[in-house]
Amino acid sequence: MTDPEAPVGAGGGRDATGRSPEVLVSAAIEVDAAARAPEVHVSAAVVLDAAGRALVVRKRGTSVFMQPGGKPEAGEDAATACVREVREEIGLEVAVDALRPLGVFRAAAANEPGWIVVAHAFALSAEATDVEARAEIAETRWITRDDLTVLPLAPLSRDLLLPVAFDRHG
Question: What is the pLDDT along the chain (170 residues), one digit of tens a residue?
Fold first, then answer.
């Protein structure tokens, strides 16, 4: 755990999730600076395979990868929206009780400049043969922790969801 009294960047330490203080501060500044920004609420699926790789998707007309998921429909709770979105976007059939809640996360929205995304995130397991790009998804990709710094990723995925998922997987 980093020393809360140490200046940001001092010692190059990492917190319990393995993120450097610079990344944590950067994510916090982005959200703090946009505290009055409009919010978009989504459900996000953090899909891991047996090897510990995470699935990310890129929507048509965008260049940034993110977790499968999307906005709930009227009357839908977050878990039900997640199940529907993964079925629509990647063809994965999953039961609500198979979802493992990760929490609620806030970050700058990748495809809606000036907006904050508030994501109810759920972990689930699948293999590459279980998924395919559907609906608005142009591309799927299975990534490792090493890809976090080289692949264009949404702030929510890069700074919050994927580090948590990789840390929990080991």
Answer: 333 333 333 333 444 444 444 444 445 545 555 467 899 999 999 999 999 999 999 999 999 999 999 999 999 999 999 999 999 999 999 999 999 999 999 999 998 889 999 999 999 999 999 999 999 999 999 999 999 999 999 999 999 999 999 988 76
State how far the Cα of 151 lies from the Cα of 146, in Å rounded to an integer.
Answer: 9
> Can you say whether the dihedral through the CA atoms of 49, 161, 154, 10 is positive or negative?
negative
**DSSP-assigned beta bridge partners for residue 57:** 66, 140
Q: Tell me how far apart the alpha carbons of residues 117 and 31 are, in angstroms, rounded to a whole number.
A: 9
Closest C-alpha among 79, 83, 58, 81 to residue 71: 81
* Of 70, 89, 68, the residue nearest 132 (C-alpha): 89
Tokens of residue 13, six digits: 């330490």
135: which 2 tokens?
A: 């609906």
pTM of the model: 0.78
Six token digits for residue 123: 């972990």
The residue among 89, 75, 77 whose CA lies nearest residue 43 is 77
Tokens of 74: 């009227």
Helix (H) or strand (E) holding 78: helix 78-90
